[in-house]
Every structure is written in C-alpha cells, then in structure tokens.
Amino acid sequence: MGPGEDQALTFRVGEAxxxxxxxxxxxxxxxxxxxxxxxxxxxxxxxxxxxxAVVPVISLAGLLGQEExxxxxxxxxxxxxxxxxxxxxxxEVGALTRLDPARPGIGGSRPGQLHVQGKDxxxxxxxxxxxxxxxxxxxxxxxxxRQAAPVPDASGPAAxxxxxxxxDLAGQAYALPIAEVGEVLAxxxxxLAMPRSDAAMLGVVALRDSLLPVVSLRVLLxxxxxxxxxxxxxxxxxxxxxRIGLVxxxxxxxxxxxxxxxxxxxxxxxxxxxxxxxxSICRLPDRVGLVSILSAERLFRDDTVxxxxxDGPQQTExxxxxxxxxxxxxxxxxxxQEEYGLPVAAVDEVLRLPATLTRVPRAPGFIEGxxxxxxxxxxxxxxxxxxxxxxxxxxxxxxxxxTTIGDRQAGFVVDAVSExxxxxxxxxxxxxxxxxxxxxxFDRVAxxxxxxxxxxxxxxxxxxxxxxRDLLAALDGAGLARS
Length: 483
Prior knowledge:
Elements: E1 7-13, E2 16-21, E3 25-30, E4 44-50, E5 53-59, H1 60-63, E6 76-81, E7 85-90, E8 92-98, E9 113-117, E10 122-126, H2 127-134, H3 157-160, E11 162-169, E12 172-177, E13 181-186, E14 201-206, E15 211-216, H4 217-220, E16 233-239, E17 242-248, E18 251-257, E19 262-264, E20 278-283, E21 290-294, H5 302-317, E22 327-335, E23 338-343, E24 347-352, E25 367-373, E26 376-382, H6 383-386, E27 399-405, E28 408-414, E29 416-424, E30 428-430, E31 442-447, E32 454-458, H7 460-477
Parallel strand pairs: 5-7, 12-21, 15-17, 23-32, 26-28
Antiparallel strand pairs: 1-2, 1-8, 2-9, 3-6, 4-5, 6-7, 9-10, 11-12, 11-18, 13-16, 14-15, 16-17, 19-20, 20-21, 22-23, 22-29, 24-27, 25-26, 27-28, 30-31, 31-32
C-alpha cells in the first residue's frame, strides 16, 4: 500500500461492521430525501439530489441480503466514486482508521472494495461486482436530453382541439388556454404584501430568483375575497412577456375540447362588478357541465394590460420572460408520498376518477375497469399497483391521466395532479438505467434543486408498452388472449 492508501472509514449496516477505503469516498451526507424508483431492484433505495447532481442510492443492506433498518438521526449516505458516482445508505458512520496490511484479507485492496470485519479476518466484498450483478444496466446515457413525447399529427383531429388548464374557484369551473399558462404551483405559506395596492393585489412571491406578482382571481371575477384553502394553487399566466400569478382553488384537470363545444359568451354575462371578463363557454361532453374560459389579456382593464406589456421586457431580464431559455412543461402527479411527472405533450386530458367503472371479468388486478370516453372504451389502469405503492391513504383527489401513443390510449389512475411546471432544459437530466429488467420506465429527471426536490419523468412510450405487455401476459396466462 502507498502512503495514505491504508486509511479507511468504518461504518455499520445492521449488525455488520464494514470499512471502505477513504480514497473512494467523495463526501458523507446526512440521509437526504430519497425518491423511490418503481420497478427497480430491491437493493436500490432510490435516487437523491446531492450537491445538484442526481445520484442513485444503494441499500447496502439489500445488497448484502439483510433487512433494511429504518432511518435514524445517525443514518448517513456515503457518496462513493466508483464506475459511476453512487450513494450508499448506511446506518451509522464510525471513525477514520488505518487497516493493518498484515491482517488476513487486507492485502491487495482496490477502490470499491468493502472490508467486512470479522473476529479473526477481514472479508473483502467487491461493491462494483455486487452493483453489476443487481444493476446490469447501471450506465448513464448520453448527456443530451431526450426529445419530448410525440406531438399529435398537426393535420389530424387532435390538432383542431383546444387545450385548457381547468381549476375550481368559488364552486365553479374556470379554465385558461394552456398556451397562456406557464406553470401551476402550490401556494407558498407567505406572500409579501405591497403597500397602496388594491384588493385584488395580494403581493409578490419569489419564483426562481425573480419576483412574481400575485393577484386574487376571485376578486378579479367580482367575488368576495376569501381565505385560500389548503388545495389552492397559483396559475402563472402569460401576458405578453410578463408573468402574473393568479390564486385559484384546486387544480382540476387538463381539458381538450373541439371548437364546436366552445361558444362565445353573451356580453350581458360580463356586466358584473369584476374586472376580469369571461371569453367563452365550453360545454363538457355527456352534458356533465360548463366551463368558463378566461383569457389572460382580458383579466385586467386595458390600462393595466398596457402597463404589464410595457413592463414585460424588464421582467424578462430577471428570468421571467418567455426567452429565458428552453422550457418544457410537465404534469406533476402524486402516488403515495412520491412525485412523478409526464410531459404535457403526452397528456391528452386529466379527468376526475368516475365513481363507478365498468368491471372487466378476469382482467388483471391492475386494470380497474373501463369507461366511456368520447365514444371510445378507455381502459383504466391503477397506477398505485403498477408502482408498488401501498393502498392505504387514498384520498378524494384521485385523477385519471389519459395518454395516447400512436393508436393506443389508456387512462392511468393517480392520487392527485398537483402542479404543472415549466422546467428549464438544463434542469432535465438523463436518469441512470435502474430498472431490474433493463427497460427504462423513467427516461429523465427534473432536478429542481429546491430542498433536494427531484421529479422522475415517466417515458410515456414505455408506460403504455409495459401496460400492454403485462396485459397480454395476463391474458395468455388465463387462456384469454386471441390467437
């Protein structure tokens, strides 16, 4: 051994005492938030944001065939520089020590080898070999990001449909064209109030190192100001190059509607006390209701809009304008305690989960049933079961995300659709190939770098491919597949 090569850091995993060469350790972290990766080997704890980089986190207990212990205040994460940077979850870190070269098992140690300490000898475990065994596809793909999900054919019927973001407000459904919406965010706990502002102006909040003015859409529409509920959201609307945050109720859905379902609003309906005007009315299919369509430029008086348009370039300099870099919109949904995302381009609609679905006899367990959607039979897939999330804690905010690739369409049930985010291209990174079967359910990760927040982006092609493969396999097993 050369000078310093005999130094090692000791640590504990369960009852096992181990050590790793100090030169292989890049850093030691307190246990960060770890995002679980469905369909990955059991020895993968998940991925974590470490100093702005997305790193796979290995459960060493799982690799060694032990049961994973709950995290405690003593739990740590060792960032090791192996073939790829890898985080290793351990129960406790000991001390920096020196390994005795004369002790059996020490000679010839290489970076990436773990020293499992026994009474009379030290057993060497090759961590790289364990990773290759469990993660045959643990290789990082090229640095370029994948293209967004396929956009519908510009000459097809879908191209003529209009796409809206809908939300609740004062017990009614409203919408803005998605082209006028930058993103939809959770309401922050504090909004800085501004002096000498009118009732509609609530104040400003920080949005990625810039200031976003926030107004009450309730007041703009002429309703009495109320206290926002816990499900309130901020819809970031575009008016020219300017950005305005509109406080609304619960984010409801993404709605696609053909032009023949959208009608101009009678002028008499815009004679109320509010400043905002309703632009049109959308009739929902199957006579289930109406949605009031707003326009960002008709939310304020003409003089206010003129000021916003004039101030837009100044806001652009602070990173709020449309030219602040390439952006991609993603729909963020929740399953259990985890967040995942789908590109907006791959989402047809977001619907409320119907109270009842038509059951399919002898269908696989992950098929909840089918529903009539725009005159077609839409299979509904329970995504909690697909991603291995426990069934308890299911709330009333469940939604169906309708996705189409080619001629295949399916609805995926999620616990909630929480946000629509605009993510800069440089915040989207390729993910390590972590699936146990080598297939890439998650092709990219949005590294938001806010309190270590990362969102795994689902590859919509693989989502539908995997559902179709499993469905055919289940039908084959039951003797129901067509020949």
